[in-house]
Structures are given as C-alpha cells and as structure tokens.
Amino acid sequence: MPDGAYDPETVESTWQERWVDEETYAYTGDGSADPDTHYAIDTPPPTVSGDLHMGHLYQFTLQDFVARFHRMRDETVFFPFGFDDNGIASERLTEDELGIRHQDYERREFQQLCREVCTEYETQFRENVRDLAISVDWTQTYQTIEPRVRRVSQLSFLDLYEQGREYRERAPTIWCPDCETAISQVETEDDERDAQFHDIAFSVVGGDEFVISTTRPELLPACVAVFVHPDDESNADLVGERARIPLFGHEVLIREDERVDRETGSGVVMCCTFGDQTDIEWYQAHDLDLRVAIDESGTMTDVAGDYAGLSSDEAGEAIVTDLEEAGALRDRRDITHTVNVHERCGVGVEFLVTEQWYVRLLDKKETYLEAGREMDWYPEKMFTRYKHWIEGLQWDWAISRQRSSGIPFPVWYCADCDEVVTADRDSLPVDPLSEAPPVDACPACGATEFVPEDDVFDTWATSSLTPLINAGWDWHEAAADGAAADDADPAALGGEFRMDSPELYPVDMRPQGHDIISFWLFHTVVKCLEHTGEVPFDSVMINGMVLDERREKMSKSRGNVVEPDEVLSEYPVDAARYWAAGSAVGDDLPYKETGLKAGERLLRKLWNASKLVESLAPEPVERPDDLQALDRFLLAELDSTVEAATEHFERRAFAKARDELRTTFWHTFCDDYLEIAKGRLRGDDDPSAAWTLRAAHERFLRLFAPVLAHVTEAVWQDCYAAERDAESVHLADWPEPLGVTADRAAGERAMAVVGALRRYKSERGLPLNDPLDEVVVHGDVEGFERAIARVMHAESLSTTTASADVEEVVTGVDLDYAAVGPAYGERVDDIDAGLEAGDYEFDTDGALLVADERLDPDLFEVERERRFEGEGTLLDAGDAAVVVR
RNA sequence: GGGCUCGUGGUCUAGCUGGUCAUGACGCGGCCUUUACAAGGCCGAGAUCGGUGGUUCGAAUCCGCCCGAGCCCA
C-alpha cells in the first residue's frame, strides 16, 4: 500500500475507469444456465429531462448495493441501464434547451432535434452514473426511442390488440387549448385563481325559475343537464322537470346525483360537456348528450350560436353582458378557486371528446392484485399502495397521446369504414405516417384509401415493457416450411414470441420510487402478465425520497436543491455511498453533510488500519493448526457479524448492515484486536496472530465492498489480490462464517477488563501506555491473560475466582417484569413499593419475600455492588472485577 | 376531500408481535501526543419518545381524536 493518507480522488477515478475497461460487471449468463444463479435487476430508466440529481444518486446507489451483494454471492448479475427518452419530458427538455416550440417544426425534424439533445444529456448522465460506481454492465443498455424498443413496444400493442385487451373509443380527454394537445392527468396541477361567480337564473319549463352559480358562463351553450343533490329537500321539487337555458333556449332534464356539492352556490349545478372532471363522470354515468361549445384552439363552435368564432374568454364576457340585459344575471362576485392547469404553460385545461386507444384493466383487477401479492415487497407496507390503487381504479388505461415525439401506433384506418388495419409483425417498427399499410384494400369494405394513425404511445406504454426489453422478447416468424401448419392456431400462423435471454425473466428485482407505483410498477405488471402469463418480478424494492437538511422536499422553487456535483467535489463517492446506506429501504432520507463526514471518517479509518495490518503481517501465512484464544474470539465475533450483515443485506436493511459492520470493525477489530496484535507481532513471530489478522482484515474488506466500493478495492488489490483467485474484490465470494469455536464469554470479559483499565488510565489523565504494576482480575479470562497484560502494559497480571478481599453487597432487586407482571397483576405496584422502600428479604431458597408475596429466584436478579477493602483500586468490568495496584 | 406513510436528546436514527436505567451516529463539554489514524482514544452532559384521551398491573410500542410533514389520488 502507498504511504500517507488515503487519496480518494485518485483511487476512485482510477478504479471507476478500470471497472468499465475490464468489464468487471459484465453479465456472463446465458439462456441455458440455471436461473437460480442469475440475478436480474430491472434498473429504472431515468427520463431524459435534465441532469442527475440527488434522488438518482440515492436510488442508483441502493440498487448497486443489491447488485454488488448478489454478485459476490456467486450469482451472475444482470444490471442494465436504459434511458426513457421517448416522452414529453424529453420534448420539453429539447424545447427549453433550444428555445423552440414543437408546433413550429415538422414532426420528423423535431424528433431529430430531440434525439440530438437527448444524446448529449445521455452521454453526460452515463458518465455521472459511472462516477458513482454504479456497477452497471454498460454493454447492456437501451433507449426507449431506439428501433429495437420501438419494435417491442409496437409488438406489445399488436399482441394486446389481438388478445382483445385494447379498444378504441371516443371519450373525453384533458386538453390544453394553448399547446393544442391532449395531456395526461399527471401533467396537470392545481392552481389558485381569481374568478367571478355568476348567479344565473334558469327557468323551469312551465314553472318557476331557479339560480345556478358558475364561473364559466361561456359553457352555457354546452349545458346538457342540471343536477341537484338527492338529499337536497329544498330543491327536490325540481328533479324530473326540464330547465330552459337562458339566451340559448335549449331544454335539459333536471336530475339528481350525489356528486353535487350542496355547499357551493345554490346547490343546483349545470353539467356542461365539458367544464370539469365531474362533468365527464356525469356525462358517462347518465349517458348525456354531447354539446361541444369550445374547440381545440379555445374558440367557440357553432353550438354557441351568435357567439361562434369568439375565443372562450370573449364569449364569456359577451354572454354575461347579454344575460344582464336579459335580466337573467342575478349576482356576480369575486372568488378564489382551484383550477386544473397545464403545469407547463399554466393555462387552464379544457376537456374534449376525442378518439383514444385504451388498454382494458377493469375486468381483471383481481388478477393484477393477486400478481402484486405474489411479489416480495421491500418494504412490505408498500404493497398497500399498489392494492389501494387497483381497488380504486375507475378507468381503463388511455395509451394514445397527440404528440410530436414518441412511438407511433402501427395502425391505419380505412378512409371509408374506419376499419382498423394493423402492421405486420415482421415489418415493425413502422411509422404509418410514412409507410403504407400491409393491405391494398380494406378487408372489411374493399376501399383502397387509408388514414394513418398519427397518435403516439403514452410513454408508460413503452417503459412498462422494460423486463421484456431486457430479456430480448421478440416475435419470431416461423420458418417458411412451417407455414402449412394448422392456421387456427395463431402461433402456427406465422411464428411465436420468444426471449433471447429467458433466464432474465421473471426479473429478480424491480427497484423504483414509491411515487410511480401506480404508473410504472402497475403498468409493467399488467403488460408483462398479459404477454407472458407470468408475474414479471420476484421482488420489488421501493426507495424513498431525498429530502433537504430540514427534512423538506427538494425543489427548485424552494431553492433547497443540493446538486450531486457539489457534494462529490467535496466528498469521496464512497462517503456519499455510506450516507445513502443510512436509511431503511422505503423511508425518505434527508441529505446530511454530517452523514458524509461520518463516511469519510470510516474510509480514513479503514485505510489507516489497513496500513497497520500490512506492516504487521505483510506476507500470507499458513493457517496454524491451533489458534490462540484471542484469535478464536475475534473470528467468532466476526462470524456473528457476517451472519448479521448477510441477513441485513438480504432484507435490504442497508443501514443495519452498514452500522453492524462499522461497529465491529471500529471497536472490536481496531480498538481491541489491533492494539493487542501490535504487541504480539512487533518483533515476534506469532503465526496465529498473523494469520488471524490477515483473515479478519480481508473479510472486512469483502463485507464493506458493496457499500465502500472504491477503498475496499484499492486495499484489497494491494494486499490480497495476488493470493486470491479473483480479479476484483467485487468478484470475490461473499464471506461465509468460518465456524471457529471460542469462549465468547471469557473473551467479552477480557475485553471488558481492557476497557475498564483504559478508563482507569483515562480518568487519571495517564497515557494509555503508562505501565501498571499489578493487575488482579476477579473472573474467568482464561487464555486472554497475556493479551490483557501486554496491551495495558501491566507488569504482572493474575487472575482469581476467589473473591477474598472483594465483598458483594445487595443493593437492589431487578424484577423480570415480563414474568412478574402476568403472574402478579395488580400486586406489581405493591411489590415495586416494597422494593423501593428496601422492605424485602430473601429466604433460604433464594426466593424474594416482599409485600407479603414470595417470588421465585427466576423472576428477578439481585443487584450487587462490590466493596473492596484491600490495597489498590477496584474497577468494574461487567461481571468481572479488576484490582489495580 | 380520500388513501398511505412519518413525527424518538441540538440534528439524524434503532426500537417486529406492550415489560419499566430508550440504540447508535453527528454535534457539544472535559481529559489523554499512544511509532495506523488527534480527521484518533477515553469519559460526560443532553429525551416527560408530536399533543391528548383510552385499554393494561405495565405503553415509545395497541386503540380513538387532534396537530405538523411528505407522497399518491380526487
């Protein structure tokens, strides 16, 4: 090992490069091997929308712990990396980066610009991920926009369509009149807006009038019904009557529905197609007419009569003026209310009826729920979210988007009869806008004109296929001579779906954030299950979010964002990894600089201790037949740590694994064992100590390797690579317990004695190497006497079990409440009182007599204090006592 | 508005099925130059476990309500 302090900058960049160059993390499996020896991870492909942030660092690092742990457990780990670059996020990035609008470009031209911008960001992102030592196999990568993935995505569409799991329907969608596109629910946000509430008088046909309050008078021409709440007695007489719409004159039925908010306005509400989400629900639930008054650009349609051609805002003002003139406007007042706006442009959304493609979900909710139950959830509680999401599902999944960039539907429609014509599987990927359909004439009506579908897939429709993308799922045409097979069997018609790497499916672990359980996870389960009949994941690991130092969400608007760049310019990557290992999986983790500092200190400790080990035992030694008591004790302690750490890693309890290792390494190994080993090995030949020192040290390196990837590799290469048959510590075997037997009790007692003597010196302001004349240990520390004497510089050390000059007096009784409570119930208070008052004694059998009760000896422990009358000072060392003279 | 989650010393955190001195880290104070590490070691102070009511002999732990925070969905 090099002299001097640990230099993470050099070490980390050196190894990051070597791991990639030497393909240390290459997936080496093949389809023929046993799936139990493979561990596949469905790495979340980041959306290409900007730079790497702390959430990425955290999430990828947690995944890396799992990858490294399983790789060391002799599994071939498949840890791929993808980019999700076919969606809106990437379009937006491109627009922002280049200062353009997609509407101003030809579709292909804009797509090209997206590719260029994304490629740049992806290159940078990839480097950043490498610099975090994420042990991804960089030969296994994909982009969701690449041809292979487009093919998979279109194949998926065709397969579901042929299975009858997809349909096309005219239905309301969320529409941004400014951007002139359909948008999805997730792209909208709530915003507080000032508005005016207008009280408008409606007349009942052949009767009185009633008042409706609305902020959207321009929607009057789109009114198709009026609703009152079924419990609303004051308006109950309206139900069943017909209402005439002021100014427009058309009549609508007055109905009742529980979704009416009785508190707002008069409790009577108009339903327009469409003003808001509730209108859509009413439209569908009550099978209402469709009156579209506002078109795609926010302009009034012919339905608006005289107002046609005005913008909706202008129409609103004009209608209010006319209502006032007609005497139908009863009141207007300013209010603040919440409206749904497009998060990107801030313009309030409209709801339009358009033709969309859907994936059928609602008929198989129980199936998808059961699939969720079959997966192992880390943490378990996250299953609840999945469950509630499915139970609350009301809609099938709309997968079509009216966007510039994205994967096109492989579909054309007959210009005459609207018959759906799908692309041939072997022609995929296709772009129907530039390619002809596979038929010359419509199979239904014989017409020869076709209209291409110009919608693209929702980005989740593709990202929900990542397990299949990774496993190389594809359609294989049958060989030419197989064409004669029974044409009733769809597979025999022309081929079958196969995977290039079937051993990768189902995937062992899906890691992801809890915010997208309802999107990515659920949709992946649905799609993969429908395509393969198998649940895609054995386990799911859900990570929390990174919060700021004050436990608040990081966001640009709050200005509390911490950039990975800043962190990593000040701290080693291993320190950041140490910090990331500080949470229970699923919990949010606040960014804490002290957490990184603690990691940095551990790196330094590990480095310095390693230098000492190397100087004490520079060469490999044969394992002696007999190991000394202290060595056996250390190895036995280490065995416990190996078992505990292994279990913690298996359960994804990273913080517990980390802290368990740190504690044993720092205190048992460094503070206790190493200090003693110095005395045994300096100038002396002690094969037992030399072998044990190296064996333990080498195991600590392996145990720390998943978390502290760089420093362990650097040390391990210098000290152990030559004698071990692995090119990297990350390819070495995960430690198994050695099964060394030791007198653990005597060892712990001995360590307690050392601790007591250290304290003794410290309290007296003595240097730790200050000599002690005589030490007498009252207690069994057999086999450890020399070690204690040497490390504490005791001239003479003797042990005795006879405590002639040490007298023990009873100072109290410690009840075992877990046993006493159930047995004595209410009497416990009295027993406590008796003990407190010192009003108790013991009988000849050792039973406790207190508060008129007799407690057997197994219900309590007697607290004793040692009194020492002889010469010297008495120290407490757990169940041993030490006298120093 | 609904669902889920979280709330433990100054800060972060352990504490599964209730058992009585609540774990550890960081920070803080004091002491110790010990030939790996003073960026180390030892010791110490610091918590009525968000609030409140209940179940129980006994509650950080179980239940109700309230307050605060976060995520998802309306």
Query: How many runs of DSSP E, i.e. beta strands?
Result: 36
Strand content: 15-25%
* Share of helical residues: 25-40%
Number of helices: 24
The gyration radius over C-alpha positions equals 37 Å
Oligomer: single chain
Q: What would CATH call the homologous superfamily of the domain at 176-352?
A: Valyl/Leucyl/Isoleucyl-tRNA synthetase, editing domain
What is the element layout, followed by pairings?
Blueprint: H1 8-21, E1 38-40, H2 54-72, E2 76-78, E3 81-83, H3 88-98, H4 107-131, E4 141-143, H5 147-162, E5 166-176, E6 181-183, E7 188-204, E8 209-214, E9 223-228, E10 242-244, E11 251-256, E12 268-272, H6 277-285, H7 312-326, E13 329-342, E14 350-359, H8 365-374, E15 376-378, H9 383-391, E16 397-398, E17 400-401, E18 411-414, E19 420-422, E20 450-452, E21 456-457, H10 459-463, H11 466-471, E22 473-477, H12 490-494, E23 495-499, E24 507-513, H13 517-532, E25 537-543, E26 546-547, H14 564-570, H15 573-580, E27 589-590, H16 593-616, H17 629-650, H18 654-681, H19 687-704, H20 709-719, H21 744-763, E28 772-778, H22 785-792, E29 794-800, E30 806-815, H23 817-824, H24 827-836, E31 840-842, E32 848-850, E33 853-855, E34 860-868, E35 873-877, E36 880-884
Parallel strand pairs: 1-2, 3-4, 9-11, 15-25, 24-25, 26-27, 28-29
Antiparallel strand pairs: 5-6, 5-14, 7-8, 7-10, 7-13, 9-12, 10-11, 14-16, 17-21, 18-19, 18-20, 22-23, 28-36, 30-34, 31-32, 32-33, 35-36
Helix pairs in contact: 1-20, 3-4, 8-9, 9-13, 15-16, 16-18, 16-19, 16-20, 17-18, 17-19, 18-19, 18-22, 19-20, 21-22
The protein binds one RNA strand of 74 nucleotides through helix 9, strand 27, helix 16, helix 18 and helix 21.
